[in-house]
Design a protein that fits this description.
The mean pLDDT is about 90. The protein has one domain. It has a two-stranded antiparallel ribbon. It is mainly alpha-helical. It is built from 20 helices and 2 strands. Helix 2 runs antiparallel to helix 3 and helix 6 packs across helix 9.
């Protein structure tokens, strides 16, 4: 009973808090600081409770008591539990970080309202048991993200938001077309019911032709949401100009939930994944890895460098999913958690540096290791995890992906992934040298630089410790968090029968 109540609260509580904040902001300017942080912390606590109590089960909440496929379902399983941890951990720390960081922006309460709707939409996507509400929650995330990217209201912020909105709308259009085709051939919007119908009718030529047309449309839509190469044009500008708390949400949660989660839910769980689709995911991921790596090496803007790095890291996850082995699946899903942690941390670091120095150009910085020791140590933790240095979490997720590739016979791809990890470490060592370790440039006023306020430091240190703990606790995390999520992928289209109790 407790689990049923918690499922409903994940999308509902942040919406209620946002509506309450619309009223409270008229009387208390600081209401958003405490209400949004408390809401996000409660959701994170609920996600932790679920991880410890779910025990690999699948729990279905029938809205209004209407049973599938007639009603609207919220579905909680090992994979959605993993994603709830990702969304609400990063959501809480983003809220905490924003208390100090967003003081320089006007209309701070409106930022929190949009942020709460963003978290509600992400939680809704993760728990949706039908494809219609999956799409509705995705649009809630999209419109919240567009507004948050433009929150600075400078010309470059608005331009980045418009580009993001245009390409995001194109992606949503492809998804809607694909969803429409799936509905037209199955007559249902319930994902589990749709999976069963497609499995039973897999030998019908007409239905197979329709599905073969729907899959590319859905894939294009998810590729745009994920910013896979060559659908990445919106990402560098959006990540560069958005406020740091927004960018950490985009990189840490939105890019995962609106693309990777959808790929797993719809392709693995409903339509099934053919050998050809596995190959597309694998090689699209590999191209994204190297494009992101080499583009990042050329950047001097701190946040733009991290943006291209995000394209590369999404590529690792796609390679793991495309490999097709349980070992690589485990690496891909564990890398979702790792990337959310270290990349969100690195955007916090970039935000802290900009907050204290007013500068993002790494060629104009230097000597900050003494002036900003917490920020420096946090950046080291993020770098080591992202570069795959043991015993940090990023090492183990990349190791699982590489071992999965070798086991599946993708020896060349595995070697290329190893090489890319070396290049990844190289451009983050570049950050360490230019920003923290070298002598500052002559016109850089180092004596006036101070460490960021305490709440920003707490947020960074929390994720810095998490980067290390994800490695040190790897066996436990693999058994209790990752493996239940992997079982959802390995069940494939049989998952629908499990949810419906057939």
């Amino acid at each position: 009973m407790l689990t049923f109540m918690l499922i409903l609260l994940f999308p509902l509580l942040p919406i209620i808090s946002a509506l309450v904040l619309i009223i409270l902001e008229r009387f208390d300017d600081a209401a958003g600081d405490w209400l949004s942080s408390v809401t996000a912390f409660v959701l994170l606590t609920f996600a932790g409770v679920i991880i410890f109590t779910l025990n690999g089960r699948a729990v279905v909440y029938h809205m209004g008591g209407w049973v599938s496929p007639l009603g609207v379902d919220l579905v909680l399983d090992g994979f959605s539990a993993l994603m709830l941890i990702v969304v609400n951990l990063i959501g809480f720390l983003s809220m905490l970080y924003s208390v100090e960081y967003m003081k320089k922006f006007t209309a701070k309460a409106k930022f929190y309202i949009l942020h709460l709707f963003l978290i509600a939409g992400l939680n809704g996507i993760v728990l949706s048991g039908d494809i219609f509400n999956f799409y509705v929650f995705m649009e809630m995330v999209a419109f919240s993200s567009y507004a948050l990217v433009a929150f600075g209201v400078e010309q470059q912020d608005l331009e980045a938001s418009i580009r993001y909105q245009v390409l995001g709308t194109v992606g949503s259009f492809f998804l809607l077309l694909g969803i429409g085709i799936l509905y037209s051939v199955t007559g249902t919007l319930d994902l589990a019911d749709m999976s069963v119908i497609l499995s039973e009718a897999k030998n019908l030529t007409g239905m197979n032709n329709a599905i073969m047309f729907a899959i590319p449309l859905l894939l294009f839509g998810f590729a745009l949401k994920a910013a896979l190469v060559p659908f990445h044009a919106w990402l560098p500008d959006a990540y560069q100009t958005a406020p740091a708390p927004v960018t950490m949400m985009l990189a840490g949660t939105v890019s995962k939930v609106c693309s990777i989660y959808g790929i797993v839910r719809i392709f693995f769980g409903v339509t099934g994944v053919s050998t050809a689709l596995h190959q597309v995911l694998l090689y699209a991921g590999l191209i994204s890895i190297f494009f992101g790596v080499f583009s990042a090496l050329k950047q001097t803007d701190f946040k733009r460098l991290l943006a291209y790095s995000s394209i590369s890291q999404i590529g690792y996850i796609m390679v793991g999913l495309g490999c097709g082995t349980p070992l690589a699946y485990a690496g891909a899903l564990f890398h979702i958690l790792n990337h959310a942690t270290f990349k969100s941390l690195y955007f916090m670091v970039a935000g802290a540096v900009e907050h204290s120095t007013g500068e993002r150009d790494i060629t104009k910085l230097g000597g900050l290791s003494d002036k900003m020791p917490v920020t420096f140590l946090s950046s080291l933790s993020a770098s080591f995890s992202l570069g795959g240095v043991p015993p940090f979490g990023g090492f183990f997720s990349k190791l699982l992906i590489i071992l999965g590739l070798f086991k599946a016979g993708y020896l060349t791809v595995g070697v290329l992934v190893v090489m890319s990890a070396v290049f990844t470490l190289a451009y983050f060592l570049k950050i360490q040298r230019n920003v923290f370790l070298r002598l500052p440039t002559s016109d850089f006023r180092l004596p006036t630089i101070k460490e960021v306020p305490v709440l920003m430091r707490i947020s960074m240190l929390t994720l810095a410790v998490a980067c290390l703990l994800l490695g040190l606790l790897f066996p436990w995390i693999l058994k209790f968090v990752v493996e239940p999520a992997v079982s959802v992928l390995t069940l494939g289209t049989c998952y629908g029968s499990l949810i419906l109790g057939l």
